Amino acid sequence: MVVNGKKLIEILDRIADVIEENKLMLTELDAAIGDGDHGINMSRGFHAVREKLKDDDGSDIGIILKKAGMALVSNVGGAAGPLYGTAFLKAGAVVEGKQTVDVADLENMLKSALEGIKMRGHAEPKDKTMVDAAEEALNALNSSNAAGESPQQAIKAAVDAAYLGLENTKDMIARKGRASYLAERSIGHKDAGAASFALILKTIFDELYG
Ligand code: ADP
Ligand code: MG
Ligand code: MG
Predict the structure, then answer these.
(1) Where is the DhaL domain (predicted)?
(2) pTM here?
(3) Which of 174, 171, 160, 132 is nearest to 30 (CA)?
(4) Ligand 2 mean position to 35 CA, how many Å?
(5) Fold entry, domain 3-209
(6) Are 7 and 56 spatial neighbours (Cβ–Cβ below 8 Å)?
């Protein structure tokens, strides 16, 4: 797996389309225990990313991710914009100046992105947020890479783990974000941000190997 800047921009473009296709699903998850705008927020954010990158020459992966992060931070009003924005900014910071990234870089990027989300949102695993999908994904990617599995296997393992993390949010009590206002009543519903996270990771896999 080697991704250059041009391919990364294509992947981000595809994420905007996939978010659009899943806007209703994301919004319905958020409507059950939040305010029902997660699909709209994510769609607005990734269309801003697309707009911001349309003239980028693809020469620096770090700059592409930084631009994406800035677009998300400044165009999304909801909690998820600054959180995903920080994730992309942090991911970009560990690949500054690189023309291509491989699966080891991806692991570093995901690690840094997750740290950024946790720092910005003060969330920990089991708080019923996107962190629950991201943490599982990172652990799976790390184990698979450490075991010497192929990049395809490693990224697939990360996607499956993210979806497992999403499923696990169903039984959790929300401790961060709007869903935390419902406390115990948030049990029985999956977290919208964990769903968008899993979807984004799946889109990356599909674009690379689908
Ligand atoms: P808002 O809640 O402002 O309407 P969104 O609906 O776009 O924003 O995003 C909600 C998602 O953001 C939640 O489902 C959760 O995954 C994530 N989230 C909210 N607050 C936090 C936080 N403090 N830390 C991590 N993730 C959070
Ligand atoms: Mg919302
Ligand atoms: Mg909102």
Answers:
(1) 6-206
(2) 0.98
(3) 174
(4) 5
(5) 1.25.40
(6) no
